[in-house]
Amino acid sequence: NAGVMQNPRHLVRRRGQEARLRCSPMKGHSHVYWYRQLPEEGLKFMVYLQKENIIDESGMPKERFSAEFPKEGPSILRIQQVVRGDSAAYFCASSPTWNTEAFFGQGTRLTVV
Amino acid sequence: QKEVEQNSGPLSVPEGAIASLNCTYSDRGSQSFFWYRQYSGKSPELIMSIYSNGDKEDGRFTAQLNKASQYVSLLIRDSQPSDSATYLCAATGGGSNYKLTFGKGTLLTVNP
Fold first, then answer.
1. Interface of chain B toward chain A, CB-CB under 8 angstroms
2. In A34, A55, A81, B99, which residue has its Cα 20 to 30 A from B89's Cα atom?
């Protein structure tokens, strides 16, 4: 049973480009969380999705950031027109339902140059 | 703002000692609580979950939950240098607050 898969593991983008981060949840999991983590800091909640639905996006910046979790395929976190401040590790976690254990992927390290 | 708070540490214990990590949460409706371990440069790894008041033991780890005091703790017995990591406390919200919120973590160092 494969774990949560994130790709790419490392992503370099120039300022103004778009970044697309993918997260394939564990088999049987229909809930996905996205978090951002800066070095030496905690996990900052961004968005919580269920298949085809955004449940809570209270941690997402209003501009440039969007997330989706389609019926088929991975969850996508999209950052448009990236800036240097977007450089961070982005983690996704999946769970079978809400209020239960969530398991993390290996993360995507985004560097904006 | 619903929050999870942890002692910022760092916490240093000698090998073989008991490490005690503490966490409080502000959302009285929170139902599920988790402890994760994160090594430097790695992703968080789930080590314990607890859903009801009392103690839950798994090997050298014991999680304790007191909903009346809104307090969660993790005890690590016979601490090993390999336990050196940042420990993250997390809670799911109550009511319609579904998100999984993390504390900032406590850095634990176990000295040989």
1. 31-32, 34, 36, 42-46, 49, 88, 92, 97-105
2. A55
